[in-house]
Amino acid sequence: MKKPQKGTFYVYILECRDNTYYTGYTNDLEKRLKDHNEGKRGAKYTRSRLPVKLVWKKGYKELKEKITLILVFVATLLVLIFLLAKVAGGQPEQMFSRQRESMVKDQIQARGIQDNRVLEAMRKVKRHLFVPWLHRDLAYMDSPLPIGEGQTISQPYIVALMTELLELKGNEKILEIGTGSGYQAAILAELGKEVYTIEILKPLTSRAEKLLKEMGYQNIHVKCADGFMGWPEQAPFDAIIVTCAPEEIPAPLIAQLAEGGRLVIPVGSQWQELKLLRKIEGKEVITSVIPVRFVPMIRDKSKVRSK
Prior knowledge:
The protein has helices spanning 29-37, 43-47, 66-88, 93-108, 116-124, 156-165, 183-191, 202-214, 251-255, 301-306; strands at residues 8-15, 21-26, 53-61, 145-148, 151-153, 173-177, 194-199, 220-224, 237-242, 257-268, 272-280, 283-292. Helix 4 packs antiparallel against helix 5 and helix 4 (93-108) crosses helix 6 (156-165). It is elongated, with a radius of gyration of 23 Å. By secondary structure, it is α/β, with parallel strands linked by helices. The protein has two domains: 8-88; 144-306, Vaccinia Virus protein VP39 (Rossmann fold, 3-Layer(aba) Sandwich), CATH 3.40.50. Helix content is 34%, strand content 27%. The N and C termini lie far apart (46 Å). The chain has a seven-stranded mixed sheet. A three-stranded antiparallel sheet has the order 2-1-3, sandwiched between helices. The protein has a two-stranded antiparallel ribbon with strand order 4-5.
């Protein structure tokens, strides 16, 4: 960032970690941004939403008259309204609906996904609601997208493929490891009876749980914990899906898989393979599906050390 010019007064907008916005003004922009990220500015609002980043600024020289200050804030509010409109539905729902249909046809069906229930779930669940506001226009692209905390929402095709591999019929109890945005959990909730989903990062856990409740899902149960250990209190599970990559298939997850159940998981560090594990007569039958690239599984370090 360039050193602020002497005598320049800045009005600015910050994007917070949870994709909300904060506006303010200063004559030392560099120091003000540093203060925000150190929790010295923004009262309780930005302090609980760090880190923040600058998304808009406007500099004014010799800002003295009150009427000018009013005009500056009106302009700032207009920019803020534009950003919020982009997030909260400024783009017509009909356009998102067309994009969702195109996603299913061109990205998913065209690559061989045939389960009609999976296709219908992908058509129904509004993926753009799970994407950060400033990226919603990219929600239906054929790629993963960042969702904060160094994590991503998976590529639509991969979501559909992993879901189809579970062969859900409608009455299953499902465990998901890696809630992330909550999108995969919503897809699973359309296809199974109960979904238990675990996320180790608290900000993502809170955000996904809030969104899923707002969308009306009553059959999704969210917990912040180390997904490597599964959810033994609710086991066994008819299906388990893992959306982050451990270096090996976690033994606790295999133990929590019911007889006849299916576990879909990416495995590996630099090079990863999507694997399907089936439990048949107490034995594990593992099939490699395709090469993939997922974020690594994050562990609770205290539990790792205690092993």
